[in-house]
Amino acid sequence: MKLYDGGRAPNPRRVRIFVAEKGVTVPTEQVDLGKLEQRSATYKAINPMQRVPALVLDDGTVIAESIAICRYFEALQPDPPLFGRGALDSALIEMWNRRAELHLLFPVAMVFQHLHPAMKIMVDPQVADWGEANKPRVFEFLRFLDGELKDRPYVAGSAFTVADITALVAVDFMRVSKMVVPEDLVHVRRWHEAASSRPSARA
Amino acid sequence: MKLYDGGRAPNPRRVRIFVAEKGVTVPTEQVDLGKLEQRSATYKAINPMQRVPALVLDDGTVIAESIAICRYFEALQPDPPLFGRGALDSALIEMWNRRAELHLLFPVAMVFQHLHPAMKIMVDPQVADWGEANKPRVFEFLRFLDGELKDRPYVAGSAFTVADITALVAVDFMRVSKMVVPEDLVHVRRWHEAASSRPSARA
């Protein structure tokens, strides 16, 4: 298999951290997003959605979408479980991963894509008002998450899961838009420090 | 258990169709979105994200996020499998469900939320340019999907899955924004007719 990776973009990093947590090694090829290589005919033949990451299996089957790739590795290498085990545990981890996507990673990405000058070549049209509208959503969710993390170590409960990976990547991606976790969100900051100190966070 | 439902909104319908396909009956309570009941203190205690649907279990545990609720029912009632079976099949269904969300349901929702006058009370701020920017994305994805459906009956392959539910709900939700599947997308139209003729589609 081969993983088409995309450097510092948040979604490729989600998969790299996931794979590192699993202790799996995957041959990787970089797609240079700065050069818009994801829009080349070669890459469009792999993923018509023109997004990274994408995983190509030995028989040529392509799995795109970060979480689909993560679920594939979860099935190949069940330990440690990052999507939970059992009906309820798995459902709650899915809920928290989606909350971290919809209310944190997605708004952070919108701020970046619609306000950062470097994204002008990629995002057409950039809608500055939409970028601005997403800033308060980021901080609202972080404040809500802070209340949740008062009573538990990780986003979805007592264990590190894919929801922590999504939230970590989102928080780290705030930096490119000069957004910072407010000082008073002490539980988010404690969680972020713990998640960042895992070897996988360097992925 | 009790399902907090939301009438004609697309996400509650996803769960209703899913549950109907499973042949499961769930006690339901309507949350009146027109009256902003999802923002009431009572409902915020159930789902702080102020969104429907939400499933409350007998011990009070809340599962929010449509796909998390669907996965819970998939675990309770595995037949018919709507998220696939086995590593590859499940990963491909996850990929197609996410494509249908990110490139179809989500853009359709953005067009509605940011352009429809009735949404002014719910969406603050409405960003008309962002609504407009999402229209071409809807039709681009439908055209791509048409090419895919030339060679297979359903969105993710030979079986009806959660990806069909997401895509069906998205296409039906185009109507409120006066968007129509173009006549020449014959494969999408054939698929839509087949999906719409299932008893679950009335949910």
Total number of distinct structural domains of chain A: 2
Q: What's the overall average pLDDT of chain A, rounded?
A: 97
Give the strand order of the largest sheet of chain A, numbering strands 1, 2, ... along the chain. 2-1-3-4
> Strand content of the residues of chain A, in percent?
5-15%
Distance between the ends of chain A: 19 Å
Query: Could you tell me which chain pair has the largest interface and how many residues each side has?
Result: A-B, 31 and 31 residues
Which helices and strands appear, and what pairs or packs with what?
Two copies of one chain form a homodimer.
Chain A: E1 2-5, H1 10-22, E2 28-30, H2 41-46, E3 54-56, E4 62-64, H3 66-76, H4 87-115, H5 128-149, H6 162-173, H7 186-196
Parallel strand pairs in A: 1-2
Antiparallel strand pairs in A: 1-3, 3-4
Helix pairs in contact in A: 1-3, 1-6, 4-5, 4-6, 5-7
